[in-house]
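Class, discuss our next protein.
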Amino acid sequence: MTTMKKPSSALRLALSRTLIAAGLSAGVAATAHAQIHIEVSGVGNNQIPIAIATFADENLAPQHISAIIKADLERSGAFQIMDAGTISDTADVDYSAWKSRGAAAVVVGSVQQLANGSFAVRYKLLDTVKQAKISQLDVMTAPQYPRVSAHKIADDIYLKLTGVRGAFDTRIAYVTEENRKFKLKVADADGENIQEALASPEPIISPSWSPDGTKVAYVSFEQRKSVVYVQNLITRARVVVANEKGSNSAPSWSPDGSKLAVALSKDGHTQVYVVGADGGGLHRVSNSAGIDTEPQWSADGQNIYFTSDRSGGPQIYRMSANGGDAQRVTFSGSYNISPRIASDGKTLAYISRRDGNFQLYVLDLASSQETRLSDTNNDQSPSFSPNGKYIMYATQAGQRKSLAVVSVDGRVKQRLTAQAGNIKEPTWGPFMQ
């Protein structure tokens, strides 16, 4: 009897990515080229100098693996990139020479095309101080997705050199608006490999990723009222999870993916409810005389953060996921909305109105130290990267709406603009399992 090997995590990742892309492109053609332009400003503290070689035989692949790795690491602001020419993963490397040139690490690799058309990408990360290999990966990727291999390698480099898991091999979702046509799109974190999940003549708002990265919940007005849907990105099947009388809005997934918190006005003023991911088991969890909206689960699933005007103006509160008494979290400023909590539960991001400007802030929940991260004046919809190191949000420059990314220390900033139309409502997907 022949025993099949269990697919490697890299192969499962590529398969999942392929299935999602296939599911999306079955209904709407995939966008072949990037339609998002990224500008990066600022650098992180103590940038790590790293030499990245051109991978041997990478011309065999449709895109250069080493170039994608460089772009990922440069965008993070954590690295100072040095060009190393072409070096294979099997070559002998002169550690002392690279150390004398200032490189703390060297990245080398190679690409091999297999008989079935897929690619085997091999890489090594070399420490010039220890004069030793500190990491190595062999990644298999489908012919149409060489970028997956590059992002996975960049994630590994980021982890080994910073101690924090990288978020390059993740996905983002956002909404574009052009000529009164709305589209929900999914892309790689670097804006490449764009797919359309939904197109509608009516607004689409508040997309939210499921914890396993296979589904997106959102609010669509295609029925001329707000309705909360969950869409499977692989099969394209949709489920209505909230279509009650009045407003249905602001879906947020529980960490285990079994249910969502939503904001409904079915009983009068808007309150927070919890509903199963299949649309069953709807029940109310907040109970105030004011408006309770924009619920967000904590990473441990124990609490829900939300916006409420129960104190007279909109502020952010926290309550048990089962309901009950709520504690106020924000106290600076008279108008704080759109709470998002980092994966470690230590940092809260939100939008605050100060002096007429809507700007992105973060709050250290332990010290109550507040920091303003943006210098724009019409920010919306913050979303943490899954490693908690960056925040994506919507903003506006002139008459055009665009996306921005900022590191939680405020040092590194990116601006993401579409070739045409407005881009808004961003949400950063989870780590791909």
